[in-house]
Design brief:
The protein has 403 residues and is α+β, with helices and mostly antiparallel strands. It folds into 2 domains: 241 residues, BirA Bifunctional Protein, domain 2 (2-Layer Sandwich); 87 residues, Anticodon-binding domain (Rossmann fold), CATH 3.40.50.800. Helix content is 37%, strand content 22%. It is built from 14 helices and 16 strands. The strands form 3 sheets. Strands 1-5-6-11-10-9-7-8 form an 8-stranded mixed beta sheet, sandwiched between helices. It has a 5-stranded mixed beta sheet with strand order 13-12-14-15-16, sandwiched between helices. Helix 1 runs antiparallel to helix 5 and helix 5 runs parallel beside helix 9. The radius of gyration is 27 Å and the shape is elongated. The structure holds adenosine monophosphate. Adenosine monophosphate binds next to strand 6, strand 10, strand 11 and helix 11.
């Protein structure tokens, strides 16, 4: 991460912080690696992540550890470990962290990548689902993600899911000869993933497959209807997509994904859903939860690359001749103490070189320290004045205030 990319990220993180902390989410940072079991149990043995994407290693004491491939299981682990169920519910947490997946690297898909994520634990109110989705929509809007679409579905609770799974497995077995090798091998383990296949014949089989949305319990139907109503009242546009299943095992009820057509093959910008069984699966009390994660690199790729708009140098301190370096250094320190974004010549350049450098930095003012006196130049209007050196900082502050 360098240069413009770094400032775009900083701006994105600032937007995420403002949006999420404004909605009562508290920052959390979990360790970069955890016991492998957390992910195999939490994310699920049948998922791509656990089956083939984790960076796993053994430490000196023979424990199996894994670089975090996602953030939800660690956040739920922390919720249990820190007794957060005793706090007022829902507990709302957000993060911006790096994650690791052993994937084939390509544009928008990396082995180390960053996500902004948000998790709300302890309430199954559909308003928490809707709030969570609205916050991600707001972030994507703020970042300027282009050609953005929101797909939404419900996977139901474990009961409706269990019955549906059997129906789907029966459908897949009837058409087994047309399925891709991979889908066929997962009929028992994870039949829902067949909806994600891009194998042509499999896709045809899935067009006539029963849909989970048509087999939800009454409670799940009502929950989903309320989420949709709330999204509509917040003016968030969505499409219900009964083929949306998401890759992870822990989802229940609401699932959603934002995609951007500006991204090409890796079109997912961010997504998430409800995971009402996960905390209990990790040894905590039964606790509903809902959340999402959005890829930082993907948001930046799909966002409009607006310049950050923040002037990074308000005062550049130049000096001539060399003997005035000490006085210049004093001005630099005084300027920073006064809250100015200030830099000084550090490269041994001639005066002409220093002025060129200040221009390249887009400095607003340049002070050319000549001893007791200093020439202060306004780089925007071009005006310059000669002042007593110890009044320069004051003059810059006054000049910036009258902008
Ligand atoms: P997931 O946890 O797979 O739903 O991922 C959530 C978001 O993280 C995706 O929508 C992407 O924006 C981003 N993401 C996932 N995997 C990668 C990766 N390997 N490289 C870059 N971004 C990723």
């Amino acid at each position: 991460m360098l240069g413009d990319d770094a400032s775009a990220r900083t701006a994105l993180e600032a937007s995420a912080r403002a949006i999420l902390e404004g909605a009562g989410y508290e920052r959390i940072e979990t360790p970069a690696f955890e016991a492998t079991e957390l992910f195999s149990r939490g994310v699920g043995e049948s998922t791509d992540i656990v089956r083939k994407e984790m960076f796993t290693f053994t430490d000196g004491a023979g424990r199996s550890l894994t670089l975090r491939p996602e953030g939800t299981a660690p956040v739920c682990r922390a919720y249990v470990e820190h007794g957060m169920h005793k706090r007022r519910q829902p507990v709302k947490l957000w993060y911006t962290s790096s994650f690791f997946r052993h994937e084939r690297a390509q544009a928008g898909r990396y082995r180390q990548f960053w996500q902004v994520g948000a998790e709300a634990l302890g309430s199954d109110d559909p308003a928490v689902d809707a709030e969570s989705i609205v916050l991600l929509a707001e972030l994507l809007k703020e970042v300027g993600v282009r050609e953005c679409r929101l797909r939404l579905s419900s996977l139901g609770g474990s009961e409706s899911r269990g019955e549906y799974r059997e129906r789907l497995q029966a459908h897949l077995r009837t058409h087994e000869q047309d399925l891709s090798e991979e889908v066929r091998s997962r009929i028992d383990l994870n039949p829902l993933r067949a909806f994600d296949s891009d194998h042509e014949a499999t896709r045809r089989v899935m067009q006539s497959a029963p849909r989970l949305l048509d087999h939800l319990s009454e409670d799940d139907v009502e929950h989903f209807a309320q989420v949709r109503e709330l999204l509509a009242s917040a003016n968030v546009a969505y499409e219900v997509d009964s083929t949306l299943v998401r890759g992870l095992d822990y989802y229940t009820r609401t699932v959603f994904e934002f995609t951007s057509a500006a991204l090409g093959a890796q079109s997912g910008v961010g997504g998430g859903g409800r995971y009402d069984g996960l905390v209990a699966r990790l040894g905590g009390p039964p606790t509903p939860g809902v959340g999402w994660a959005a890829g930082v690199e993907r948001m930046l790729l799909a966002g409009d690359s607006r310049p950050a708009g923040v002037r990074s140098v308000e005062l550049f301190v130049a000096f001539d001749p060399e003997a005035n370096r000490r006085a210049a250094f004093g001005i630099l320190a005084a300027a920073r103490s006064a809250g100015l974004k200030a830099q000084m010549e550090l490269g041994g350049r001639s005066l002409k070189g220093q002025l060129g450098h200040a221009k390249a930095l887009l400095a607003r003012y340049v002070a050319i320290v000549e001893g007791e006196e200093t020439v202060l130049r306004d780089m925007e209007g071009g005006a310059q004045e000669r002042l007593a050196t110890d009044t320069v900082v004051h003059a810059v502050l006054r000049g910036l205030r009258t902008l």
